[in-house]
Design goal:
Strand content: 15-25%
Radius of gyration: 23 Å
Structural class: alpha/beta
Largest sheet: 6 strands, mixed
Oligomer: single chain
Number of helices: 13
Length: 323
């Protein structure tokens, strides 16, 4: 439970890794507090020796105090390229004199810009394999998992899947292309369509794959299934990844009113700014008393008090306590 993030602050020859269990969902608003308030908040956080494992990390901020560079990525971040660009430009205004950059490919980019030894000790798990019929006959009117655009000699073919993920398509390999083309075709959706959150573009002519999000270990686990292909992935947003892939069609973008509305939600001030206040607020928001008690006990590293029923059960179970 939590929204775990790391903040890495480098000054001179010293690098400090901070950990915040509740910072993931509020990173965009926390950063928007500006240099002084944000750094004061970071210094309240726990200092760790190592970065979080990838499976637990929901965001990361890298701060080079000497070069005045600010890099960040957040799992809770918009998919609309228009909103991403607007937020980053406004964030830069809150950090005058700093170079502000979104790490679109998350920890892959973080390792490059900060020379971190991170990727080498991560685990790479292969996704669950699917059968050919699963790709062709994947239908569910109530759900859409991924948008797929295929470029080949015939032009551009657009379809969507119901439950088959991008990971499973890449894991299936290059033979997934003719199977995907057996699915119903569709027009390119607008930027605010939910299906655009997971967009996969397969260019069979240039032998390129492009994805509008960063999927950790995808190529390490499945790249061998696409001989001769290269992969470009990152949290670029739907519209930008289409442009990067040279897709001829232009989708309808979100309106400026929608951009501003989304931007306001990203920078909404939190009364619980900072790790200590965030924990107190999180506990207050838990309305069911037993769950609240459990949370308090976890954070205080205390064992919960036994109920009368648990004490009675302990007697009949040889005195063993039941928690």
């Amino acid at each position: 439970m939590g929204q775990r993030v790391n903040y890495v602050v480098r000054k001179g020859n010293k690098q400090t890794i901070y950990y915040h269990k509740w910072g993931g969902n509020s990173m965009t608003s926390d950063l928007y507090q500006g240099e002084k308030k944000f750094l004061d908040m970071v210094r309240e956080c726990t200092v760790n020796e190592e970065l979080l494992d990838e499976v637990w990390m929901e965001g990361c901020v890298l701060i080079d105090m000497d070069a005045r560079h600010l890099y960040f990525w957040a799992l809770e971040f918009p998919n609309e390229s228009t909103v991403i660009d607007y937020y980053v430009s406004k964030l830069a205004e809150k950090w005058p004199g700093w170079e502000v950059q979104q790490l679109a490919n998350r920890m892959y980019d973080a390792e490059k810009v900060f020379s971190l030894n991170y990727l080498s000790w991560q685990k790479y798990d292969e996704p669950e394999r699917v059968a050919a019929d699963d790709i062709v006959n994947d239908f569910d009117e109530a759900w859409a998992e991924a948008l797929v655009v295929i470029k080949d000699e015939a032009g551009e073919f657009i379809t969507k899947t119901a439950n088959i993920t991008i990971e499973k398509i890449i894991d299936y390999g290059v033979n997934a292309v003719p199977l995907l083309k057996k699915r119903p075709a569709m027009a390119l959706p607008a930027e605010d369509d939910d299906v655009t959150f997971n967009t996969l573009i397969i260019d069979t002519l240039a032998k390129k794959i492009m994805i509008n999000q960063s999927i950790f270990s995808l190529w390490e686990s499945c790249g061998y299934q696409w001989p001769g292909y290269s992969l470009t992935m990152g949290d670029y947003g739907y519209v930008r990844v289409l442009a990067m892939a040279g897709i001829s069609s232009t989708p309808q973008k979100v309106s400026m009113d929608e951009v501003l509305e989304e931007f306001e939600s990203l920078i909404a001030d939190h009364d619980a700014f900072g790790p200590k206040n965030r924990l107190i607020t999180s506990l207050k928001e838990v309305k069911e008393k037993p769950v609240k008690q459990d949370l308090q006990q976890i954070f205080n590293n205390e064992k919960p008090k036994q109920t009368l029923l648990q004490k009675v059960w302990g007697i009949f179970s040889g005195g063993k306590k039941v928690y």
